[in-house]
Amino acid sequence: MENTTTASQKVKEIDVNKPKFTVKEFKRQWVLVVIGAVYVIYGIIFYYLPLVGWIMAFQNFVYADGIFKSKWVGFDKFRFLFSDDQFIMVIRNTFAMGVLNLVFSTVFAIGFAILLNEVRTKWFKKTIQTISYMPHFLSWIIVTAIVHDALTSTGIINELLLKFGIVEQAYPFLMKPGWFWPIVTFSHLWKETGWNAIIYLAAITSIDPCLYESAAIDGAGRFQKIRYVTIPGIRPTIMILLLMNMGNVLNAGFEIQYLLGNGILQDVARTIDIYILKWSLEGRIMDFSLGTAAGIFKTVVSMTFIVVSNYIAKKRGDERLF
Amino acid sequence: MKTKKIVSLVLASMLAVSSFTACAGNKSSKIVDMTMFAAMAGKEKDENNEIKEIIAEKTGVRVKESWLTGQTAGEAIGSIIASGKLPDFIDGGDGCPTLYENHLLVAWDDYLEKYPNLKEMYTKEEWDQFRQSDGKIYWANVFGNHYKTDTTTGHNGEAFWIQARVLEAYGYPKIETLDQYFEILEKYSKEHPELPDGTPVIPYTCLCEDWKYYCIENAPMFLDGYPNDGCVIVNIDEGADKPKVVDYNTTDTAKKYFKKLNEEYAKGNIDPDFAVQTYDEYIAKLSTGRVLGLCDQYWDFAYSIMGPFSSPLKASDGSEFRLDQLGCDYVPLGLTIEAGMDQQWHSYGDELNNASGCAVTTSCKDPDLAFKFLSMLLDQEIHDLRFWGIKDVDYKVDDKGCYYRTEEMRENWKSDSYKAKHSCEYSYMPQWRGMSKDGKNYMMPDEQPAEFLAGLAEPLKKCFEAYGAGNYADMVGSKYVVAADALPWYPLWSWSNGLGTDTPGGVAWKKMGETKHKWLPAVVISKDFETDWAAYQDAYAGCKPDDFLKEAQAAVDSRLATAQSNGWKPA
């Protein structure tokens, strides 16, 4: 019995998914095809054509000679990359800050969404939500300036520390390499928690209220409802967002590290993006090839991340991207 | 429906008006608009800047200048090259060689013959120093070039600067060493912890950002009595024809200097944010008058603080005061590591920097006009307009034909807003210092002796008098050495600024810079100086500075050989 249903389903699926391409079909759908084609062309021009530039990674690219006349050097640039201590350090920083961001921003966003959901006074909830996602609309340069000012010797943090007698001299936060990653993570949290919570909040809202009611009948308290209804309810959303963000781990950032970093912090502040900028766009060096190679590395790793985590999700039977 | 009509009517009329004005603009004048980018921090001029318009009418060219905004000079030039959108004129700073290597600059050679004003800027030997690997000249440095006589009143170079009021408070003592310098700063800051408006003072700060970290980095070179070769000390104990390159980062003096900074930091005499501040924050800090002492080159800070120092402020008791009247202006001190040593903080004579300068790019549609414009900027009439301003508005002429300014005119030229709307120096384009071509006046107002003295605030005048100094250069009190004549390789930074990463020495230079950027502030704030200093020296040795020093020695030798082939002999 089961066999036959799956078999017939399969046949149906094939019918639905793969209509035969005929002239008649095309004539019927030509408007859709044209609209679709616009997006395909857009994608090709803006996402795939620029990839031609990857050729530079295998050349000793000289701007004046262009792509066609520059000398080919094979994998030399990659060899240089992986023998450069700086690059290894830069990968470490990017990973560290990327993972910290991913973990903390996810946990905080979920936590915040759940807390917000538990608030019963509507106006209060709305107000908090609005206030909390405002910082999302600030650009990083402004956030960095605020963080920078808050942490200098005369900033609010040090003023408070001094006032409460916790320190005797202003503490030089921005001169202590150990503080840099926490500061960056905190800045991300401050800026994005409210915004990230919106999507979880929406997911929570879509949970069937019957579940809460029946949980209440079963004697579940508030915490138990969260534990057994809310969290399982938004689990698919969490999985999808985690998957999507996995590809972003290496996009740990550019602006904040670039703007907040200084000489003392360079060993912990440089990310892959800054490394690319330093090598490919800095006046006397202008090694586009090396920058491109580093960029390719980043893309390949990000792709691998997404594919692997998607595979794991698939294996575990969770929600997945593709 | 009606609203739609109205909207379209409005749009149509706007279009008509805008196209009409565009046409009108084209018809009324034949002035060509050009652009310039200088890889330096600078101040934008207002649209319709008054003197810019006058110069435009006389020369037929109007140039819009733009400056660095936040990024480093290298990054700015890199992105300009990558985008392919070049301005007509460019001063790429360290990026000049990169622009040349990418064939983006127009050679000066043909135009030098055509425009004698330009050719006159340098002697043949000097022009030869600008020649690139293909034998042509692509840029000319525009600074520190004296027309005929050296008339320096200023000290454009580096020094430990101190506010005149600090010296005044203790009867103008003789300050020769770091110990004396920090002692007086500390004492004054304890006795006068606040400005009249309640701003707390900072005894000492120094900038550590990007290439301007020289403020903390190269003092050991000067403290040992050497001139600003920038990247190394060139020791001439065995004679100027046997120069020996020495690394100033590893000398005992370097250690002593940083140990001193470390002690002062621990005592709270150094700005706690010195390593974190950006250039903008640094200038903002200086502009409040709260910083008593600093180490920097004059041009890097002095022009930016003139405006704020001469504008009235409100004291906390409601009265008005001005920072320059209070004695907040900085005077330079030529410190040495031990008292009584000769020093060369001030270098006499012209300093030829062949590593960068003003260039015309291949994007310029009419290079001939561009060079003609550069040449016309050196006409005395235009030069006066640029630096003196408009006659009877910005300066007056007495019966003998000497220019002078009234108090009001001087104040105007210190005000940033006035300069933005009125003055147009084209400050990174060819210019002269020294005596005017009329033989009476000076190219720059601050070099006109009467004007220089009159322009000084009272406390500054008293200070110079007390030390028996006629001007800034006297105040520094360096040994009189015309470096360009005595030391044919001088300044060697014009060589190191052009280093790429294509040689081992260049790679070492880059790594040394990064290591110093990290470690110099770190040893200053260190709680355990000896350990951290050793760690720094280890890290520094790991950059293979010897590779760099070898190339530096070769550069000195080759410059020496060129000079000798031109008939140079040690004095």
Descriptive account of the structure:
The complex is a heterodimer of chains A (about 325) and B (about 575). Helix content of chain A is about 70%, strand content about 0%. With about 325 residues, chain A is mainly alpha-helical. Chain A folds into 2 domains: about 20-70, no CATH class; about 75-315, MetI-like fold. In chain A, strands 1-2 form a two-stranded antiparallel sheet. The model of chain B is unreliable at about 15-30 (pLDDT under 50). In chain B, helix 25 runs antiparallel to helix 26 (about 530-540) and helix 25 crosses helix 27 (about 545-565). Chain B has 2 domains: about 30-145 and about 355-455, Periplasmic binding protein-like II (D-Maltodextrin-Binding Protein, domain 2, 3-Layer(aba) Sandwich); about 160-345 and about 455-565, Periplasmic binding protein-like II (D-Maltodextrin-Binding Protein, domain 2, 3-Layer(aba) Sandwich), CATH 3.40.190. The N and C termini of chain B lie far apart (about 90 Å). Chain B has a 4-stranded mixed β-sheet with strand order 2-1-3-13. Chains A and B meet through helix 14 of A and helix 3, helix 4 and helix 25 of B.
